[in-house]
Amino acid sequence: MKKDSFFKETLVLTISNLTTGILGFIFSIILSKELGPEGMGLYGLVMPIYNLFICLICGGMVTAISKVAAVYFNKCDFRNLNKSIETALIFDLILSISISIIFFVFTPFISSNIIHDSRTLYPLKAVAPALIFVALSSILKGYFYGISKVKIPAFIDILEKSIRIGIIISVISMFSNPDVTTTVTIAYIALCVGEFISFVSLFIFYRFHKKNMVYSKFKKERKSQLMFDILVVSLPLCVNGFLSTTLNTVSTLIVPRRLISTGIKYSEALSLIGKFSSMAMSIITFPMIIIGSISTVLIPDLSQALDKKDYLSMENRIIQVLRISFLLGLATLVISISIPNSLGKLFFGRDDLGSYIKFAAIAAPLTYVSSTTYGILNGLGRQGILLRNSLLVSVEEVILLYIFTGIPSINIFGFGITLIITSTTTFLINIYEIKKYCYINFSFSEIFIYILFSILIYFIINIANNLIPNKLFTLKNLFIIFFTFASFLCSISVISKKESLI
Q: pTM of the full predicted structure?
């Protein structure tokens, strides 16, 4: 029953995440058409700074609240449950307002001296209030995750993405040929409004759900103790997220400067970044929504197995999710090297993304598997190891990006080379640590069979691509994408049934 529940919860979360992911993908497509490659590059320079401050305010808070909420909810201790949420809301409100004000005041310094592009000033100012709403929303999302009401934040995420798309389309249509700065600013205003509506919606659901709870006679905990219990879990995760995000932000800001050092103009450098990291990578990483859903469900699943000392079940689950991740990565690779130009045309209406998509896809199998290993370490309770390994890889990423993107003959493709190397490093060091706590046996003959299967699918979809006329361009490419993923998912299903896991 537990195993059935694992896949059921994964499916529910995957469907909701796919919906929000599709809306997010549509949002990026709309942005790409409105901004162009240079605008997407500019948009991408602001986002890491925003993410950095988000980590500073609420890094680890969703996980901490969900764990605390689950404990109190299972004991029916609703008094301390709601007291914990309200204490955390007050704490994060004070913290987020303080940091948001500091962020707003220092936006001129950030745009001029850190990003080195004055056009980012107004987008940075526009996004400052969103820090408050995201911080408060993270607590309420953690609450709903902890009491197993996943559908509520999932529905609100879909609503938020839909509103952002509506604002972008409506506001930009009011302007006559807006410049890049104005359009990027509008995009971040839309983000801010979306986060505000998301928080209000979550708070309304929380108040409604709270009314239906019947308080029982449990001992009242002090607010300081409740907040301490939350911070004990969230602070290590916050430090991990903040340091990793800081290094990722440094990586993002390094790339345009290194490209300029090779003789490329600044506007062209932004265009290259927009094409590779904002367009090509969004196509390659889209299926990772499934990996994210699996990892989310995997963490409590492994924690329970570890607590019961059910090591056989734990080892089987780890092998299974690694296999699924690898097959999804192979499916992404096969599609991307078969129809790279068509993917760029289909999703972004551009004919110049093929080489970037094909090169970025080389890392897909390893990237997908290495991403899953972080979830495994989290589920095994190895947060300290996770922190150390993620920092090592982030430092490696900064160094490799600095080296490779500064070589004229490589330039933006240094981003792809870095991704391949860091994904390999992540997999090797994480698997090394995982194997200290459980037995993981890799069958190279099985991997060889998967590769042969991938080659077979590659030839089949290339034949289909040549046989189906180009006048059915959209239908043809959607069929190829669907057929490839369906083939790999069927192979996953067959393997799972064989092992009696579903």
A: 0.73
